[in-house]
Amino acid sequence: MIRTLAVENYRSLRKLIVPLDRLNVITGANGTGKSSLYRSLRLLADSATGGAVAALAREGGLPSAMWAGERKAEPAGLKLGFAGDEFGYAVDFGVPQPGPGAGGARSMFALDPEIKRESTWAGPVLRTAALLCDRAGPAVRTRTADGGWHRSQGIKPYDSMLSEFADPQLAPDLLRLRELIRSWRFYDHVRTDADAPARAARIGTRTPVLTHDGADLAAALQTIREIGDEEALDEAVADAFPGSQVRVVDNGGRFELQLHQRGLLRPLGPAELSDGTLRYLLWTAALLTPRPPSLLVLNEPETSLHPDLLRPLADLIVAATKDTQVVLVTHAQELADAVAKGAARHRFDINSIELVKESGRTTVAGRESMLDEPLWYWPKR
């Protein structure tokens, strides 16, 4: 489980270190940095697949993604990191150095940041003795079984050691960390418009994990019914829509969702469902997954939901924490309150973090000094 998340110089997150628990609720007014915190977690996940540099380039390059306020005399860089009971990881992205492209001409990939520093370590706090894999510029070194170091190896400035050096023989701990990060799951603004993928009948295959766009919703719900918690699925639907049931029909191999409601002579197909109803069913499929991730991050799941659906959604979120760590980013105080009440009923602890912005900088409400932050050290360039 992740215990600490650290971000430096990413948009309004000048220096932010927050503790995480099993169930985390991130709130705050518009523009306080909630989306930036969510995206920083996504960037960390992208590091495990070698996609963080490309993701930053899509944001307009490092200058567009970095803190725009005044900085002390320090190397320009964007830092991301996390630490848990078993592993910690930190990466430092810096300004790219001018270099030749094809034929010796200036490279056209000027928006690609470079990875200047990257480290993994054992335990919740970075210490020299706890380092497992360490990268400074193009040089990467990994621990040997007796505590020494393998000979340094080279790496391209745009490649992460998580994707290039996760070898079961050379760096087994790095491989375990990479697979842990790759198990993280993110859901953000799933489409429910008239042309949404979730409204179309599709070829059905076993689907223990709902895709990010919800295209396989019918297959995911049927998978829950067959190999997951069928009773929880029926309860979640009936709790939100009393007297209703969800069924999946097979039309020549194509699965289609049907909602049976009390008083109606025929079921409603996916094209007839309201945006809120469809969105709630999407969250149901995501949260009742038969293959829970190590970390599940939800960004504003309350969008387009009727207020009456927030309490059933909160119950699904709380129930999911039995098997996975959850980070909920929400604009709706009603949802945050419902999650808190649900956690209290189940005697779960909840980690509530309210973000505020002061002088363009995101901070945690109620935090008076650095002594209130979790202990954290960045690897130095």
Keywords, please?
single chain; 381 residues; alpha+beta; eight-stranded antiparallel β-sheet; 17 strands
Pick out the low-confidence regions.
none
| H-E order | EEEHHHEEEEEEHHEEHHEEHEHEHEE
Radius of gyration using CA atoms only: 23 Å
Report the span from N to C terminus. Answer: 27 Å
Helix content: 25-40%
Major pleated sheet: 8 strands, antiparallel
Q: Largest beta sheet: what is the strand line-up?
A: 2-1-4-5-6-7-8-9
Broad structural category = alpha+beta
Write down the overall geometry: globular
How many distinct folded domains?
2
How many strands appear in the DSSP assignment?
A: 17
Strand content: 25-35%
Average pLDDT over all residues: 92
Helical region count? 10
Domain ATPase AAA-type core: 23-335
GO molecular function: ATP binding; ATP hydrolysis activity
Organism: Streptomyces kanamyceticus
Keywords: ATP-binding, DNA damage, Nucleotide-binding, SOS response
